[in-house]
Amino acid sequence: MAAPLDIDQLRTFTAIVDMGSFTRAADEIHKTQSAVSMQMRRLEDRIGKPLFEKDGRVNRLTPDGEKLLTYARRMLHLNNETLAAFDDEALSGNIRLGTPDDYADRYMPDIIARFAKTNPNVELSIICEPSEDLVAKLERNELDIALVTHSPGNWRSRMLRTEPLLWVTSMAHGIHEEVPVPLAVGRQSCCWRRLGCAALDSIGRNYEILFTSFSSTVVASAVLAGLAVSILPESALRPGMRILSAADGYPTLPPAEIGIIGRSGAPAALMDALTDHIAASLNNISTNMADEASDEIRSRLMYNARARNEQLVTSW
What pairing do the DSSP bridges indicate for beta strands 58-61 and 52-55? Predict the structure, then answer.
C-alpha cells in the first residue's frame, strides 16, 4: 500500500500558494524557510513530480502542482472538519458579515480562506453594501460585524488599516485632461466621493460626475475604458491604470482608512474569532501591486512609498 500524504506538508504547500512565496509562507506557518523548502522537496519526492518551477525570481506551480492544489485543499478541509467534530470547544453557528463592494473584491478571499480553515463548522454569511447601509443594518440587528470606511464623524469604528487614496485614470487614454473632468465615483454618501470633489473644488478644477455606482467593478470598468477618472485605495489598483498626481493637476487626497464595527449582543466568541482573522488578513496584504501589474504602476507605488517614508521622518 502506498504511504499516505503528509497533512503538514500539504498545509505548507497551500500556504506557499496562498502567500505567494516560500518566505511569506514560512512566516505564516511559523517555520524557517529552510524547513519549508525541505518539506516541499519531500512532497515532490512523494508525488514523484515537480510542483514548482522558476519564472524569473518567482516560483510558480507546475501543471502537476495545480492538480495537487485541488486535492490538497480538499484534504485539509476534511482534516479540519474531522478534528472539529471531536472538539467540544470548536466554534459553530452562524455569523453575518457586511462589507463594501470595494473591500470584498480585494480583502474577502483571504479573510474567508483563513476563517473557514480554522472554523469549518461556522457558517459565514456575507453581504456587500455601502458603509452607510451596513451601519444601518447593524443597528437593526441584521448584521453582526461590518467592515466599513472609517468615518469618525458619522459612526464609531475601530481602524484596522490605512493606505493611500489615489486618483486613477486609464494608461491608454487621456480622459484626465478633459475639461470638465469626467468622474466615476460612488453614491452621494460615499466618503471617497466627497473627499475627491472637495479636493477638486479646493483648486478650482471643474468636474462632472458621469458614472455613479457602489460597485467597484463598474467604477474600474469606466476608468479602464478611458471614460472617466476615479478615486481608489492603493491596494485596489489594477493593470492598465495610471496614478495621477499634483503634477497632472490632481491634489493629494487624505488616506483611505478601513474600520470594523461589531454589533452589541452578537455571539462574542464568533465575533472575536472573525475579527482576529480580518485584522490578520488586512495586516498581511501588501500594498504593492501583484506581479501582473504594469511597471509604471509599480514604480509609482515605490516612489509614493519613499515619499511617505521621508514625510514620516520629517514629521517626527
Answer: antiparallel
Evaluated on CA atoms 22, 24, 28, 30, the torsion sign reads positive
- Give the sign of the dihedral formed by CA 258, CA 186, CA 107, CA 175: negative
Rg (CA), the chain: 22
313 backbone dihedrals φ, ψ, rounded to 5°: -60, -45
Angle between helices 63-85 and 101-118 (to 10 degrees): 60
**How is the beta sheet containing 230-233 ordered, strand by strand?**
230-233, 165-170, 241-244
User: Model-level pTM greater than 0.70?
Assistant: no
Bridge partners (DSSP) of residue 127 are: 98
Cell numbers of 16, please? 506557499
Nearest to 150 by CA among 282, 237, 230, 255: 255
Q: Which three cell numbers stand for residue 157?
A: 469604528
Cα–Cα distance measured from residue 93 to residue 87, given in angstroms and rounded to the nearest whole number: 14
List, for residues 81-133, the tens digit of each pLDDT value.
787 767 656 688 899 999 988 888 788 888 888 888 788 888 999 999 989 99
**How far, CA to CA in Å, does 200 sit from each of 48, 166, 171, 228, 288?**
60, 13, 21, 15, 27
pLDDT band at 301 (very low <50, low <70, confident <90, very high): very low
Which residue shows C-alpha cell 467540544?
Answer: 88
Assess whether pLDDT exceeds 70 at residue 308: no
- State the SS3 of 172-192: CCCHHHCCCEEEEECCCCCHH
